[in-house]
Give the backbone structure.
Amino acid sequence: RKDKIVKQFTGGITMLFKGNKVTPYAGFATLKENRMVSIKGHDGAVTEISATNVILAPDSVSIELPFAKFDNKFIVDNAGALDFTEVPKRLGVIGAGVIGLELGSVWKRLGSDVTVLEALPDFLSVADADIAKIAFKEFTKLGLDIKLGAKLTKAEVKGNEVALTYEDKDGAHDLVVDKLLVAVGRRAYAD
């Protein structure tokens, strides 16, 4: 279903481009001097264009933790969590932000046992305190096991599982999950 929706949206953008006489270029772009842009297409061909104004809109990528590298099978980002072919029995989520909570609650409703590890001691610390308190209550009522002040220190794929170690005020703990969603934020895709 997700793939169908993405195809529909991108097809709609293509139609908007055509209708507004926008020329798309697919490939990797490099900004040069004097507002020149060099575009290396997927076929290797290079096209150079110039413009009065150039807008840099490089998108963003998920932040990867050095001890929990994405393998797109067991340790995933938000896109990988949408590509699971079956409901994981046990899902670990690193980060109790918007993405982690949204995807954690989706997979919980589909049948996963979901444990969310949040390094900060407060739940939704950037939100209004009353709203955060209500949201915490609702997410835990849904069945998410949310551990605050829990900092992931190790994630290792072993067979068909991911062995986690995290620390909180009571010391170190181990947790084993089938899939691990790392949702600790995004950064500009400036590569």
Remarks:
- The chain has four helices and 13 strands.
- The first strand starts at residue 28 and ends at 31.
- The mean pLDDT is 93.
- The two ends are 31 Å apart (CA to CA).
